[in-house]
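Q: Joint fold for the lines below.
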Amino acid sequence: MSIKTTLHLLLIFSLGIIAQKTAAQTIRVEAIFTPSSISSSSRTVYKVVIHGTQQNPQGSLPQVPGLRISNNPQSLRSANFINGVPSVRVELNFQVQPQRTGNFTVPSWKVMIEGKTYQVPPATLQVLDPSQQEKQAQLDLRQAAFLKLPFPRSYFFEGETIMTSLTLFIWDRLPVNRIENAPTKIGESFSCNNLGKWTEEKRNVSRNGKIYSTFTWPVALTAAMAGTKEISFNVNLRVRVNSRKNSPFSSPFFNDPFFGFGREESLTVELPRKSIEIKPLPSTNRPSDYSGAIGNFRAQYSVDSKQVEVGDPVRLNFSIEGKGNFAAIPAPTLESNEEFKIGPPAFLFQGNEETKSEGRQNFEFILTPQKAGNLKITPINFSYFDPIQEKYSTIIGNEINLFVKPGEKWIEPPNQIESQNSIPSTIAMSTNDLFQTASDPGIWHSNLQLEPIQSNYWFWTFQILPLSGTLAFGFLGWKRRNKFNEDFRIKKANLSRKLNESADHRDPTGFFRAFKDLTRMQISKKDKSRNTFAFSSDELISFIKEQKFDKNLIIEIEEMLRLGDGLEFAESSSQELDFKSLRGRASEILKKLS
Amino acid sequence: MRMLHFSLTCFLSIISVFVWASSKEQLFYDAVRFEATGNINQAIENYEKILEQASSANLHGNLANLYYKKSDYGRSILHYRKALLLDGNNREFLSNLSFVCRTANLENTDPLKNNFIDGFSNNFWKGFLVLFLWFGLLLISFLFFLRTTNRSIIFTCLAWVGGITLLAFVVFDSTKHESLTESQVIALLDRKQGDKNASATIPLRRFAASSSTANASVRAGESLFVDQSQLEGYQSHQGPNSRNWLLVRTADNLKKGWVRQDEVGWILKN
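A: Joint structure:
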């Protein structure tokens, strides 16, 4: 017997003994928390151990207020020899997270194992306050990076632009690789300027006993609607962490998360929501020309030349200087009249283009005087609301006088030149002033030369319509005409056959009827507008006479028709008729008619 | 409240549209402003910059006014002609052009504008011809379909062929006229010379070389026609110093000679 066979036999023998012994083993149930005492920010495991079996127990775990116990236990089976005695057991591990501090007891509960009911003993867990170190760690995490947005006043007015700054504080221990994006505004109650790269960066700023680097963005907020409104900002930082287990952002507890060369994670830093009261603009004493300016302004109004000629453009400059919502200030309204042609204004802002809250806003109008004389330019008044004094103010503009000289006049050219010139004299004579500058460009053209019509796609496409119409009419007409001719030919052939047969059988009635019908057919070609098939013999003869046929032919036709009518209606004798010669005459007549 | 927010956003957008108007319009308004401040050279420069992108009747009109103020009558006439191409019925342009021609002692401004056909564009006549062609064909086919007498169909056909022939002649004449307009240029003085010597003339040289003697000369602002090449395009020559020369003649064919390309301005080209 080999050693291998001996070992197999021993194993079978041992298992047989274990099975025999375990069958005889009693089932015992234990329940404990490991660890049994934790801080409120930690987790623990509720462990149920069943000795003496490896079968899964069945039962319902009771809920304990203040503890969150997972429903999916981890089960573990084991078999051991202890001092030569075999032992088996099943272990169930439930994850537990405390929701508050205090002592919690999972009461005794029942489990069913191998068809019998067993009691699970109660187990107690003690949840303590976080330790000083843990508290510090949580505080550090909150203070690692944060945003600050100070407001200059406790309330604002609707439409007012507030100039402030948003500062991001980053603790020097936080291993930030980069700021992922510019801060983003949260909330629709305010409109905000575009925040690009920070404008100010400071190092070694001390705050909360920590050293920070700060990044500041100028922010111009415009309150869009009245009421108590909230605003917040967030910004994403790219932070290097050791591992997921130690990530400070997935777990509130961490030991030393800010060191190491692990992977990167995105950390969102959010400004706690700030509430601010937005008041509506007062409606009392509001000037009629008020157009939404809020701030503190000074206005200037000037022209760059006070003496010009008719048609020469003059620049009118209206500028507003100060602090306020420049982005929402429209240009004053100046309309063309009999004296001036006024072009659209040009907007020129001197100051921070991003925030547009402080600087100088110029509105430039081009005025073209239309007539000579001492003309007065209508003064421009500017009204605004002062949010500090909380009242409306109006800056009244001064009247500007502009002396306009007549300039060059059209002189009628001598007749000799005029006659050689291609320009009509009426046009030249009716024009008074020359060389006036147009203040707007008019319609733009990409090319002076017109594109040839044949290179246009639609030119050819539209021709499909008449082409289709022509083809359709042509085809239908051809079909229609062919049918008419065919019918005509068949009818003629039938009548000719009938004429011959009647002559052969000496049937005068049939003969003359066939002749009459053939005559009608031949004549119908002459005038399609008349239905010759309905004509009586007399009508037929008079019609033939109208058509200017040869007189002898008309006489012959008349004779034949009278002869036929006589035979048919007057019952004349047909005995002496020579059908052979009659057939010859009929053929001759029909030949001449065709 | 949402509406208020929306209106505010729209309002701000409209303002931004005004502020960031397209560059050519901005250049135009700037040019008008430069003119208003007396900076004529800068205004001309702005207008010329716009011409690289697009043109408009008012733009050419303003530019012509400025050239007139600088006594550069050739360029003034050239730009009035361009302005009239885009807005043919503008009385101001017509009067100004006539005035400039008179000042420059020029008698005839547009030698081609003499007949009724010019009142309508070549495209109009081509379109009219096609319309007539199809109308006739449709009418004839319709009469054929109605089985009217052969005589009326033949009569219609004859009238139609007559009309087509007449219109084809008009189109041919209009195309020829258009081709002549394409080849039309205006004699220009050197830019530096423009405002200093208004009476200076442009020589029409015997050969395409600066040293060549002149056959004749023309005044700035006169209309000339570039000769068509027997192969394709215009009679041109490139000199050793990369200067392009064009063979031109006057409308009455009395003067003919070579000019540098910068001594003339094309009416139909920017």
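Q: Anything notable?
A: Residues 116-182 of chain B form one domain. Chain B touches chain A through 75 residues (CB under 8 Å).
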